[in-house]
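Input/output pair, single chain:
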Amino acid sequence: MTLRKYTQEFRYNFKLAYPIILAMLGHTVVGIIDNIMVGKIGATELAAASLANSFVFIALSVGVGFSTAITPLIAAADTENDIEKGRSVFVNGVFLCTTLGVLLFLILFFLKPFIDLMNQPKEVMIMAKPFLDIVALSLIPLVAYQGFKQFADGKSQTKYSMYATIIANLVNVLFNYFLIYGVWIFPELGMMGAAYGTLISRIVMLIYFVFVIYRLDIFKPYVSRINFKEIKLSMSKYIASIGIPSSMQSLFEVALFTGAVWISGMIGTTSQAANQIALSMASMTFMFASGLSVAGMIRVGNQKGLKDYVKMETVAKSIILMTFFLYTGFAIFFMLFHNYIPLLFLNNSDPEQAAMNAEVIQLAGKLLLIAAIFQISDGIQVTALGALRGLQDVNIPMIITFFSYWVIGFPLCIYLGLYTDLKAEGIWYGLLAGLTTAAIFSYFRFHYMAKRYINNTI
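Output:
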């Protein structure tokens, strides 16, 4: 009966989460498609795209993490039927996200010379710089889009972001094909074509979502006759008080994985390419947990607004349990097909690159075996953090993520990767240690906070 209390929530969890999962998968698929199409050009080009994207992923984690502050605030206002508060959160949230997108682009643009200091293969650094310029520019429409998306998610209207990412992926594949290979009237740009395809697809995604928001009746009370006078310092500060710690949580995790990319590059091009293949697959499955995390954020925010704290605890733990079952299935899949998945990313018909590709495939298979295990921890920690964001509890979780990833995880990545014979495998054992620590402490933090609400001690 105790298990049934949680499993009976699975149906509604899935109904709310699946559009979010598909939308988030869409973001990841953009990167995977780019990696596959660039990887067909060569392993060096794949390593260069990986290096450039590592910078973008760090910035993107800040933007996406910050935007998640909007969802629980909108969910609580929606439950309280407070349109005025919800409108203020929406207007100020989108303004902050757009401003942040511009700021993140400028930071990446001016920090680009730091690539030269990263001890990466010279040919990889040369190719990475122009690629970084274009993909970094795509952060402006993408982070602005996140503001609109998180607002819609808070209103439990999760399907529109799914449609937006489907459209974006179709546009991305189309322009990648045209611009990488010079089809029809388009120039042949090689790997740079993938960067331009990403930029164009993200602009299209933002335009579509703005159109949806302004057309649907459910959103009209929030978006009609907006003016700059509605941007209030008090509300902006309130959103930032949740958004900044949330962005730091995301930053600490993504920076850990980015650090793994950089350490892999220090070992060599083969390790970096193998790392990118395994990371692409782990990132794809991670989106399922990310979608469930947003669903947990919405449901916990709703129940907090209703002050039904027992139900709040039940729905959150049901999502964590659902994540555990799902990721056990993914782990089995990775174990069964770890030797075959890498074949998708490389051109095995090119005899000049056959030897390097064979090394990449063998190493990527080993990394996927480790990823099979650590993604269970990764799924649990992100859904527990989503529940905590629903409670608007972000400061202690920020400390938990910093400790887990940068006191435990990253030092182990450095030691095992650079100072033992494990090399690239050692890096991923360090990731496993950090994620497992975060999962344990995040879960117990939510359990502690939920009991405090239930016992009226908060």
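Residues 6 and 321 are 8 Å apart (CA to CA). The chain has a mean pLDDT of 91.
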